[in-house]
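hi support,

uploading two proteins for the ticket. first:
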Amino acid sequence: MEKIRVLDRKCIRTCLKVYRSRESNFKKQISNETLYNIANIPRIDNFIIKLTRDYFAKLSSIENKEIKKILETPDQQIYITNHNSACLPPQAFIYFDKKGIIQDSNNVPTIYHWGRNVANKRINLTTDMIANNKYDPVYSMALPERDKMDFYSLDERYWWLEDSCHRIKLKLRKLNGWSATW
């Protein structure tokens, strides 16, 4: 994911012709957060999560028995699959999103910031590790204003997020404003 994010930032810098900051006498690059704020677009990892959520939200409207089975996979089976093999089924996204492992209540895509070996695809993050900040993020977690103020995951289409703790925190943040919790 980090390779995609680097390419995304390079493309944005080229399109906007914004490379170095005037304050540093054009020696230091403009921060990624500032770059995204100037462009007023979401980060690519947040955008991919949004597209994936929309995909799974639309699956329930398709009249196909096999597709309906995808949505009915029990959480325990996905948990066992994750710990026994490195191959996860597509519906594991719903399970990990419900647990708050994909994205936290501050819209930070936690799953992409946790360092993993290329050969090991297991997701060893737990909700306790994320809630207590007991995982070491490898990449920058700075978010542009657009991503900080994005409340799309509160949409009722995302039925699997109804009971999730990070959705409750997101609702509180929307009511109280961003600065109250950040």
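and the second one:
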Amino acid sequence: MGWYVVGVSLALVGEFLFIACMERVLGNIARGEPSQMRRALAAQLLAVVGFVCVIVGSAVVPAAFP
């Protein structure tokens, strides 16, 4: 049961991180300000981390119930 909680929590945190960061990336790109591009890249990297968290969390949940 503990792994199930870890997997679901990781997936949820990853999903929220991905959504928030991609919203920021698209907003920064739409503005087109050069000073915002570095922030957009950082947010995009965090979005990738969030997406990986979703994948890992989704893989942990089925493994919790053999």
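thanks. also noticed: The chain has one domain: 2-60.
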